[in-house]
Design brief:
Elements (H helix, E strand, L loop, with lengths): L1 H9 L1 H7 L6 E4 L3 E5 L7 E7 L6 H7 L1 H18 L6 E4 L15 E5 L9
Antiparallel strand pairs: 1-2, 2-3, 3-5, 4-5
Bound molecules: guanosine-5'-monophosphate and zinc ion.
InterPro entries: Histidine_triad_HIT, HIT-like, HIT-like_sf
EC number: 3.9.1.-
GO molecular function, one term: hydrolase activity
Length: 121
């Protein structure tokens, strides 16, 4: 429908899914994609997204909980692959402008490889 057409043309991460914008892809599954953040905040900083456009984690959870589960399984496997699963890592969904969400195609940040403070700043 018109929403998905708008997403495909305007959304940066839809363009990574389609290959129109290059990315350093680290994992691919049927319905999800993992690639390195262009501005990494830790030695491991990978973004995991559903191939399908959903604006944020709440909307994805409501529309397709199985797809959210796949994003989380892929996020965990990224941590395993990167060698940070044992020592500890973080999975973050920034949601909305005040939380710093800048790309409105849902993405899990997988962050690790250094000490992570709590609460975050
Ligand atoms: P947000 O701030 O929405 O939670 O996260 C968006 C993330 O996307 C940021 O960490 C930012 O560095 C990353 N990012 C923005 N543009 C690109 C890009 O073109 N390629 C990649 N790989 N990451 C990007
Ligand atoms: Zn998108």
């Amino acid at each position: 429908g018109p929403d998905s057409v708008r997403a495909m043309t305007d959304c940066l991460f839809c363009k990574i899914v389609s290959g129109d914008v290059p990315a350093e892809i680290v994992r691919e599954s049927d319905r999800a994609l993992a690639f390195r953040d262009i501005n990494p905040q830790a030695p491991t900083h990978v973004l995991v997204i559903p191939r399908e456009h959903h604006p944020n984690v709440g909307e994805l959870a409501a529309a397709d909980p199985g797809l959210l589960a796949e994003v989380l399984r892929e996020a965990n496997q990224v941590a395993v692959d990167e060698g940070v699963a044992g020592e500890g890592f973080r999975v973050v969904f920034n949601t909305g402008p005040r939380a710093g969400q800048t790309v409105f195609h849902v993405h899990a940040h997988v962050i690790g490889g250094r000490d992570l403070n709590w609460p975050p700043g």
